[in-house]
Amino acid sequence: MYLAFGAFIVLCGATHFFDIWVIWNANYWLDGSLRAATAFVSVGTAVLLPPLLPHAENLARGARAARERGIELETAVIDLETMYQRTKELEQLKSQFFANVSHELRTPLALILGPVEKLLASADISTEQRWDLEIVLRNAKTLHRHVDDLLDAAKLEAGKLAPEYAEVDVAELVRLVASNFDGLAAQHEIDFSTTAPASLTAQLDANKLERVVLNLLSNAFKFTPAKGRIVCKLALLGGANEPRFSISVADSGPGIPAAQRLLIFERFRQLDGGSTRVVGGTGLGLTIAKDFVELQRGWISVEDAEEGGAMFMVNLPVSALPGTELGAAPKQSGREQTALAREALPELRPRLDSLPPVSVVDEGRALVLVVEDNPEMNRFICEALSVEFRTAAAFDGHTGLSQALALQPDLVLTDVMMPGLSGDELVRELRARPEMNRVPIVLLTAKADDALRLQLLRKGAQDYLTKPFSIEELRARVGNLVALKRAQDVLIEAKASTEMANRELEAFSYSVSHDLRAPLRGLDGYSQALLEDYADRLDPEGASYLHFIRAAAQRMGRLIDDLLQLSRVTRADLRRDEVDLSSIARTILGNLKQLAPERDVEVIVPAALVAQGDVRLIEVVLGNLLGNAWKFTNKRAQGRIELGSRREASSRVFFVRDNGAGFDATCADKLFGAFQRLHSDREFEGTGIGLATVQRIVHRHGGQIWADATVDVGATFYFTLPSSGHGANA
Amino acid sequence: MSPKIILLVEDNADEERLTLRAFKREKILNEIVVARDGGEALDYLFATGAHQGRSHDRMPQVVLLDLKLPKIDGLGVLTRMRADERTRFLPVVVLSSSREDKDLAAARW
């Protein structure tokens, strides 16, 4: 294309020069052929050009885009630089913030520590007050140490912490720091040994090295279980170029997985990062140790110890770089570090045995189990609750679980972050056990972790409290839940005793049904035998007496039957079936008609009256209502009995209507009481239990029953039942 | 030809007499063996205990069984009968005034 275009331009130019030349030489043939060539090339160009136009446009657009992209890239680089600057500023700000916070915290802490120590020094305080003050002191010191850690970390970050070199006997230093842990080792039966040469002089920052050794040993003691083993070893390493020495601390604790060995030196990092925190601490100890070692041209590493735990290894040069200014060895360092170590100890291993026993007297009061790993917090809560409740304390999740199972407390109050079994796992474990299912659980969370709290509430915890919490709130919440649980206990007991009573009633009914009937059968049977076998020897009066006996016995039998039915109606489990009232009614009325074929009764039963209910019980309802209608219409020449239904607001109302004797409507409320009769036996026989039974059945189905009537005109009984297809509550 | 024996299991003497009278009135003249509790009934049926050595051809043709019996009750007797090859298909008429569903259900085989 470019070639065609180029040829066309060249030929055009040539044509014009030729024109001039032709004017002088008049060689038209040459001119003509040149013009022809120009024409051909121009036409060719014209043909080639259009398909290439979009391509050309794209080229132009591409160039524009590239230029724009270049600008964008430039902007991005500028942005990135800005961001980097800002990040750096933020880093500095953060360090500054740490430093400020730490300083701000130290002042009030010092103001707490001072007076407390002064108070403790004075003789006239009670043992209990001393106990409380010691807790304040210990916690203030722990906080103080955490603040110091933070401050050091901040200084390190800001590069403000230059090492102060001096000639130091490292062997003596290690022995001195290690000796601070002897007491702790003895207390927990930890086999703690230190090996070091008699003397090892090196040029380094003694304070910083002491801090390193202290942190490593603290760490080892934190993680080593009772009766474990910790070995601290100092050794001179024969280096070819530069002599170096190593300090190793090996423990028999859980060790550190290879994948996490780099992470443990990061700030605020603790393994086991979830809520199953094994030990307390700021997570800065190892970071500081690492930074202090690296400041002095050393390195720190971690590997598996022979005992199975972790082994931290510090490697440092014996001599400082040539030309380093050496100061005087700090004399006071030993004392300072001893104090530091002592402050660290109570936090490492709170002595549970030193806690005064918690009350477990007064059986009548509700028992609250407090599961909290911080012994002071645990004690604080127990004491706060002991005003109203009995308390029991557990200091980790596993003990909490076994105590809960053993004591069956009225409430479990548990921390979330705990060694071994965490609070959320405890909730799960407790809820998995049916016998613990009703014990309310209240969580103590320090975290502002809404998601975890929601999750735990869903898992079956009843409530939570966020630390710090007020004692009043704690008491109120615990009190509410305990009251609720106790009320539930009472209900469950009542239910159990009701069930017991029901079982007894059932046994009673069973026995009545067999034992009362047997003598009645004797009465009736032998009367009948007399009437049949000795008819010829009985005068009419004697025979009539025997008939009275039989009638009375039979009536008694019916009474027993009716009473049993009444009690059975209450006891039996309710089934829910689709019940065809129409066909039941037809069967019942058919049977009645068979027993009294001489009666003229008009029966109206529409097809397909259907309801939800227990077919056996609804048979009883219709049997009684239709039986009554049949009975009370027996004085009518033309009886009329109707079963029907009509739709009302929310339910279907069934009715049984007759044109019989009726009753006084003012007595309608007496109708459904057991043994209530509105007619004398002479008029209409009956036991007076039928309608009571009917009412119970209708009520058990969740329905209503009522009646209206006019004397000598008739009666109508209305009842509602759950409609077909709509389940009612049992 | 072996006699067609009816086994009546009934502990109440009044009931027993009424039942025997009813048989007589209805001209049922079969031999009637009476067992007064569940254990005795089973002894007779399986020729054990007091009825050890009972002749094989004196197996009853039908059992009239009261439910409420001392020692082993009627349902216990029925269960044991239905579990044994010799009496599995022997007709049993349960005599009871009980309309308790659980009795009816338990006797329904």
Explain what you see:
The complex is a heterodimer of chains A (730) and B (109). Chain A has 18 helices and 19 strands. By secondary structure, chain A is an alpha/beta fold. In chain A, the strands form five sheets. Chain A has a five-stranded mixed β-sheet. In chain A, β6 (299-304) and β7 (310-317) form a beta hairpin. In chain A, α13 (471-515) runs antiparallel to α15 (540-571). The longest helix of chain A has 94 residues, at 28-121. Chain A is flat. The model of chain A is unreliable at 269-280, 332-338, 346-361 and 726-730 (pLDDT under 50). Chain B starts with 5 loop residues before the first strand and ends with a helix. With 109 residues, chain B is α/β, with parallel strands linked by helices. Chain B is globular, with a radius of gyration of 14 Å. Chain B has a four-stranded parallel β-sheet. Helix content of chain B is 35%, strand content 16%. Chain A binds chain B through residues 509-510, 513-515, 517-519, 521-522, 525-526, 529, 532-533, 561, 564, 568, 572, and chain B through 12, 14-15, 18, 21, 25, 67-68, 96-101.
What are the key terms here?
heterodimer; A: 730 residues; alpha/beta; 5-stranded mixed sheet; 5-stranded parallel sheet; 18 helices; 19 strands; 53% helix; disordered C terminus; B: 109 residues; 4-stranded parallel sheet; 4 strands; 35% helix
What is shown here, in short?
With 730 residues, chain A is α/β, with parallel strands linked by helices. Chain A contains 18 helices and 19 strands. In chain A, helix 9 links the parallel strand 8 (367-371) and strand 9 (390-394).
Q: What is the helical fraction of chain B, as a range of percent?
A: 25-40%
Give the DSSP E fraction of chain B (strand runs of 2 or more residues): 15-25%
Mean pLDDT of chain A: 78
Q: What best-fitting shape of chain B do the alpha-carbon axes yield?
A: globular
**How many beta-strand runs of chain A?**
19
Whole-angstrom Rg of chain B: 14 Å
The parts of chain B where pLDDT drops under 50 for at least 5 residues are none
Largest sheet of chain B: 4 strands, parallel
**Strand content bin of chain A:** 15-25%
Tell me which protein chains meet in the greatest interface and how many residues each side has. A-B, 19 and 14 residues
Question: What's the β-strand tally of chain B?
Answer: 4
Q: Ends of chain A: how far apart?
A: 93 Å
Spatial arrangement of strands, main beta sheet of chain A:
2-4-5-7-6
| Tally of helical segments of chain B | 4
Shape of chain A: flat
Radius of gyration of chain A: 50 Å
Poorly predicted tracts of residues of chain A: 269-280, 332-338, 346-361, 726-730
Distance between the termini of chain B: 30 Å
State mean pLDDT of chain B (0 to 100 scale): 84
- Could you state the oligomeric state of the chains shown? heterodimer
